[in-house]
């Protein structure tokens, strides 16, 4: 089972006897039921998680693909609290956990700020126009794309792009977050900055032949403040497993 599988990892990683400062767990899952109901359930889950996660000092992030009903989530906190949360996640009948995507790490520091509690980047039907964006000092652009890996490995392309993006984004006052799923070659990205900087960057991204943008996923909106203020480009990844490398 999901919880039992994770329990093996919980106690097998690291041979030192002292209690680690933090545990980080990440996984993917698929929501059950129709897409509309699943999206509402995700909203409910996030709304309830924000307060409870803050109170027990758990940080993390969720990415939800509303079209595919796919969830990616990472949680960070004390080993006891994260293990308790993970048990309840495994028992939740609203989704099916992809057991081979579960990773558990003992870490010394957080990737996500405690003040978040839980943030969710939801990728669904986009809204490509934004009348308020031009008048706003800040805008956010979200999109989903698929890497075209005919000439190079998809992961190789992502590994080339991200370091350069971090430098350029920092120079142009752009912050954001990316999730790359190496199992599906799908990229989810959030970009934040001035409308001029974002649209200039988007012109390059949308015309890059190395990937294909899912056009109905593109969403623009004016924002009062940044959600990813500390990152010129933070990236998370769902890695391939050994059995996937052997798949025909």
Automatic annotation (TrEMBL):
One of its GO terms (molecular function) is blue light photoreceptor activity. InterPro entries: Acylphosphatase-like_dom_sf, BLUF_domain. SUPFAM superfamilies: Acylphosphatase/BLUF domain-like (SSF54975). PROSITE patterns: BLUF. Pfam families: BLUF. It comes from the Eukaryota. Residues 22-119, 138-234 form the BLUF domain. This is PacA protein.
